[in-house]
Amino acid sequence: MFVKRTPEGSLVIGAPAKVNLFLEILGRRPDGFHNLHSLFQAVSLFDRLTFAPLPDPGLRLTVTGAAPELFGPSNTVVKAYEAVQQFRKFEFGLAVNLEKNIPIGGGLGGGSADAAATVLACNLLLDNKLTNDDMRTIGAQVGSDVPFFFSCGQAIVTGRGEIVEESQFPTDYWLVLITPPLAISTAASYAGLNMPLTEMREPSSLHGCQSVAEFINSLRLTGNDFERRHLETYAVLGKIRDVLIDRGARLVRMSGSGSTMFGIFDTAPEWASEREFQQESWQVNLARPIVLPRIEVNLNGGRPWRSQRSGLL
């Protein structure tokens, strides 16, 4: 997370999207969840959240640039605030403005990132009374992907998503993220797997990844277990995949349970802003992998995300 503290006492937090460079579903557990094995990578596409403390408990949320479904108790910001309150009672409230830039229902983890930002904001306003483990525990109550956003920004994620092992694979490449006007339910995607309660399969492993070329070659031996089914169900995903391949992507993959498809490129493609994508109503974002500082707080009111690897911001 990238944090700015304003002179007025508010916090501005940049919450990044993530992509799944691979995603394997190893099996269904007796508790109904699935064990996964995935490589998460934070990327330079951010939601921007502003948190202003209020004298009385309660949450006042406004959302810009988003669909109506982001208002109400199902919003992950609301859930995260309530989860922190249950873990450690505090007396102040929060006025939160969420500037939504990460596509909704695209498999990019925007809701989880927003929840993590809310937990972090509460902790900063509590003078860091929560440990990193506390924040991960609280985040996991909101969503399986939330604990990842308290990591360095790249990690092998296992369990149902709550086990995060930081990694150091190459990051010197560009990504083009293309999201069609199609929101795919994560719960429905898992239900569609129809996995029996059997022994878990063995996860893949990545070897010889000192260079980007070696890394991509290793990634080609993995995949996304949701991708084949979704390509058969949603023709637009195949169309996007073909566009990325035709434009020279070294690897094309779906993120999470979709609907975002992404391509990996050596350099920033100039065609990513072409009008043909606007005519298709596709949301196209050019991004770079980023490594997140534990907490980067700018106390002097300057640029909020001043990091060597914060990409396009």
Automatic annotation (TrEMBL):
<keyword id="KW-0414">Isoprene biosynthesis</keyword>
<comment type="similarity">
    <text>Belongs to the GHMP kinase family. IspE subfamily.</text>
</comment>
<dbReference type="InterPro" id="IPR013750">
    <property type="entry name" value="GHMP_kinase_C_dom"/>
</dbReference>
<feature type="domain" description="GHMP kinase N-terminal">
    <location>
        <begin position="75"/>
        <end position="151"/>
    </location>
</feature>
<feature type="active site">
    <location>
        <position position="145"/>
    </location>
</feature>
<dbReference type="InterPro" id="IPR006204">
    <property type="entry name" value="GHMP_kinase_N_dom"/>
</dbReference>
<dbReference type="Pfam" id="PF00288">
    <property type="entry name" value="GHMP_kinases_N"/>
</dbReference>
<feature type="binding site">
    <location>
        <begin position="103"/>
        <end position="113"/>
    </location>
    <ligand>
        <name>ATP</name>
    </ligand>
</feature>
<dbReference type="InterPro" id="IPR036554">
    <property type="entry name" value="GHMP_kinase_C_sf"/>
</dbReference>
<keyword id="KW-0808">Transferase</keyword>
<dbReference type="GO" id="GO:0016114">
    <property type="term" value="P:terpenoid biosynthetic process"/>
</dbReference>
<dbReference type="InterPro" id="IPR014721">
    <property type="entry name" value="Ribsml_uS5_D2-typ_fold_subgr"/>
</dbReference>
<keyword id="KW-0418">Kinase</keyword>
<comment type="pathway">
    <text>Isoprenoid biosynthesis; isopentenyl diphosphate biosynthesis via DXP pathway; isopentenyl diphosphate from 1-deoxy-D-xylulose 5-phosphate: step 3/6.</text>
</comment>
<dbReference type="InterPro" id="IPR004424">
    <property type="entry name" value="IspE"/>
</dbReference>
<dbReference type="GO" id="GO:0050515">
    <property type="term" value="F:4-(cytidine 5'-diphospho)-2-C-methyl-D-erythritol kinase activity"/>
</dbReference>
<protein>
    <recommendedName>
        <fullName>4-diphosphocytidyl-2-C-methyl-D-erythritol kinase</fullName>
        <ecNumber>2.7.1.148</ecNumber>
    </recommendedName>
</protein>
<dbReference type="InterPro" id="IPR020568">
    <property type="entry name" value="Ribosomal_Su5_D2-typ_SF"/>
</dbReference>
<comment type="function">
    <text>Catalyzes the phosphorylation of the position 2 hydroxy group of 4-diphosphocytidyl-2C-methyl-D-erythritol.</text>
</comment>
<feature type="active site">
    <location>
        <position position="18"/>
    </location>
</feature>
<dbReference type="Pfam" id="PF08544">
    <property type="entry name" value="GHMP_kinases_C"/>
</dbReference>
<dbReference type="GO" id="GO:0005524">
    <property type="term" value="F:ATP binding"/>
</dbReference>
<feature type="domain" description="GHMP kinase C-terminal">
    <location>
        <begin position="217"/>
        <end position="267"/>
    </location>
</feature>
<dbReference type="GO" id="GO:0019288">
    <property type="term" value="P:isopentenyl diphosphate biosynthetic process, methylerythritol 4-phosphate pathway"/>
</dbReference>
<keyword id="KW-0547">Nucleotide-binding</keyword>
<keyword id="KW-0067">ATP-binding</keyword>
